[in-house]
């Protein structure tokens, strides 16, 4: 068995930094052999999202039951909603011979790193908070949402020093960011 066989890759970063675009692009690169860990949440489904593909959507009561049943490897509260990683999702991916790719926030990432061995944490940073603010404005976030998410972003940036890698997603250079993250995953999965 190769050492890196069960590695789990975690991508974290503040809201609107580009995590979604980066993870989607990584998942399309067959040579990386990645599979996305579908997580659970109590937040509302967005119109573009599909149950079981983007998230498992639970009521708060269902989520609480699942916490009690030990269904989640980790869980966290983000924007007043619950998010959690079903342990079986990761195990299933590992059994299939692929590497698990997670897109989760910083507290959850810390819990996963403490509970599993072979976890590689990659933090995606914006070139500035102003870039994030502009993107949130373009995405029509409310003033309250922007203030709230920027406050969270500052806390998340402070946590980034605990990560194995920090990659800056410079505005307008998404392809370069994807190439950098791919190179990290390639290197880590070979060792
Ligand atoms: P969104 O609601 O915008 O899709 O996600 C909000 C945040 O929750 C993002 O930072 C995302 O990475 C994080 N997230 C998604 N699933 C999980 C999970 O299972 N656990 C944790 N800790 N964070 C998650």
UniProtKB/TrEMBL annotation:
Species the sequence originates in: Candidatus Jacksonbacteria bacterium RIFCSPLOWO2_02_FULL_44_20
Family recorded in the similarity comment: Belongs to the guanylate kinase family.
A UniProt-annotated Pfam family: Guanylate_kin
The keyword Nucleotide-binding belongs to this UniProt entry's keyword annotation: yes
Record domain Guanylate kinase-like: where: 6-186
Gene3D superfamilies the UniProt entry points to: Guanylate Kinase phosphate binding domain (3.30.63.10), P-loop containing nucleotide triphosphate hydrolases (3.40.50.300)
Top-level division of the source organism's lineage: Bacteria
EC number: 2.7.4.8
Top-level EC class as recorded in UniProt: transferase
Keywords: ATP-binding, Kinase, Nucleotide-binding, Transferase
Keyword Nucleotide-binding: yes
Protein name per the record: Guanylate kinase
Entries under CDD domains matching the protein: GMPK (cd00071)
GO cellular component terms given for this protein: cytosol
GO MF: ATP binding; GMP kinase activity
């Amino acid at each position: 068995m190769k050492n890196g066989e069960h590695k789990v890759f975690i991508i974290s970063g503040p809201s609107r930094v580009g995590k979604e675009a980066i993870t989607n692009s990584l998942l399309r690169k067959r040579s990386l052999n990645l599979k996305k860990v579908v997580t659970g949440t109590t937040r509302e489904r967005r119109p573009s999202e599909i149950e079981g593909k983007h998230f498992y959507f639970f009521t708060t009561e269902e989520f609480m039951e699942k916490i009690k049943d030990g269904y989640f490897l980790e869980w966290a509260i983000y924007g007043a909603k619950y998010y959690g990683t079903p342990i079986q999702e990761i195990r299933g991916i590992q059994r299939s011979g692929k590497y698990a790719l997670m897109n989760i926030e910083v507290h959850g990432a810390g819990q996963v790193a403490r509970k599993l061995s072979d976890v590689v944490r990659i933090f995606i940073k914006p070139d500035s908070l102003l870039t994030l603010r502009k993107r949130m404005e373009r995405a029509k976030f409310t003033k309250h949402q922007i203030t709230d998410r920027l406050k969270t972003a500052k806390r998340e940036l402070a946590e980034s020093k605990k990560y194995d890698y920090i990659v800056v997603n410079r505005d307008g250079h998404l392809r370069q960011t994807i190439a950098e993250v791919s190179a990290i995953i390639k290197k880590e999965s070979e060792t």
